[in-house]
Specification:
By secondary structure, this protein is α/β, with parallel strands linked by helices. Helices cover 33% and strands 25% of the residues. A hairpin with a 2-residue loop joins β19 and β20. α8 packs antiparallel against α9 and α9 runs parallel beside α10. The chain is globular. The structure holds zinc ion (ZN). Zinc ion (ZN) binds next to loops.
């Protein structure tokens, strides 16, 4: 049955009537449609642009499709109706079309250097095998490849790029040649510099970004998904654990954490496209998109409307999930009050509609 929604539709900021027919939006009235919202503020469904339905709490790979379903459902119930899966140790392409689950833009498995990532999560490969692995993982995903660009190097006791510059650059080229976009995890200054200049499509975390590099990202249109919750939540624990064996690394991680809000603020000021990603899975709980949005506003100084764009219409456009336009996708969230005036409103969606069906 068709649904009818009326409210102030963002980003256009106009009172509109929408009809949802199957999985699509139309502005042409549909007689007999059921009205499921008649006031409030209507946004295209939220996007978590860095999320891991394939990683269970404790950074453990999931072992069944039902686990991925349960984790993605927690995000959905917070208004996240599309997820960019930033790497999964467990394949679940069949979940892309499930009516009750968020839409999925998926990378295959993380690709990391041997023994230089969370245990059991990544495909760990030597430099000589990176290119072929990227090509294969581009096929395993549906448009993205996830590279681990740096990690602790135990031989030097600090963060270091996963492979040499030529290999990292070849990894981006291989992703593009396979028709995929490349996302790269980076914490350090060195890795993010190499990857931005190599033409990577999105920088995940990006704690090591410096002023000249954010200008370069803005010029190239390279995206940043800062995952501020993650940096704030886990860097302290990583540093604490490493303090005795790798004191330089521990100190480095704390400095990166403490400087991060100003890094994200500088990227925002420079015009870098920023998207909301929680890094749910492993160390971060699912369902925290609203908290990440508040951090981007309160700590990095993004305007409320830019945070909303980063979590909704701009992110959907970036990932290829059309919003509330004629023949767009029937995914929306409705809030009682204007989230541009008070962003805390996003913590409590009154109505959630996914693929033309009422979730709440
Ligand atoms: Zn992640």
């Amino acid at each position: 049955m068709a649904l009818h929604v009326r409210g102030v539709v963002l980003p256009d900021d106009e009172v509109r009537d929408l009809w949802l027919v199957g999985d699509r939006v139309t502005f042409t009235p549909v007689p007999g449609a059921e009205t499921v919202a008649d006031r409030g503020f209507v946004l295209p469904g939220l996007v978590d642009a860095h999320c891991h339905p394939g990683i269970a709490p404790g950074a453990v790979p999931i072992t069944s499709l039902d686990q991925a379903r349960a984790l993605a459902t927690i995000d959905r119930d917070a208004g996240v109706l599309a997820i960019r899966d930033a790497g999964s140790p467990y394949p679940y392409p069949e979940l892309e079309d499930e009516p009750d689950l968020p839409r999925l833009a998926r990378a295959g498995r993380h690709i990391a250097s041997p023994r230089r990532y969370l245990r059991g999560i990544a495909l760990e490969v030597e430099a000589a095998d990176v290119r072929a692995t990227v090509t294969e993982q581009a096929r395993a995903g549906n448009g993205w490849v996830k590279l681990v660009g740096d990690w602790l190097d135990r031989s030097t006791g600090d963060l270091a790029p996963s492979w040499d510059e030529a290999t990292l650059t070849a990894a981006v080229e291989a992703a593009h040649a396979a028709g995929a976009r490349a996302a790269v995890h980076t914490f350090s200054e060195a890795a993010v510099e190499i990857m931005v200049r190599a033409g990577v499509d999105s920088v995940e975390h990006g704690t090591g970004l410096r002023a000249d590099l954010v200008e370069e990202m803005a010029r190239r249109g390279t995206a940043l998904v800062p995952t501020m919750i993650n940096i704030e939540t886990i860097f302290g624990g990583i540093a604490e654990q490493a303090r005795e064996k790798f004191p330089g690394y521990a100190k480095h991680m704390l400095a990166l954490r403490d400087n991060f809000p100003s890094v994200v603020g500088a990227a925002y000021e420079a015009g870098v496209p920023i998207y909301v990603g929680t890094d749910a899975g492993g160390g971060i709980d699912h369902g925290l998109a609203a908290r990440e949005m508040l951090l981007l506003h309160e700590r990095a100084g993004m305007s409320t409307v830019d945070v909303l764009a980063a979590a909704s219409w701009r992110a959907r456009e970036w990932l290829g999930f059309p919003g509330l336009v004629e023949d767009g996708l029937a995914d929306l969230v409705v809030y009682d009050a204007d989230p541009r005036a008070d962003l805390r409103v996003v913590q409590a969606p009154r109505r959630i509609v996914l693929r033309g069906r009422v979730v709440r």
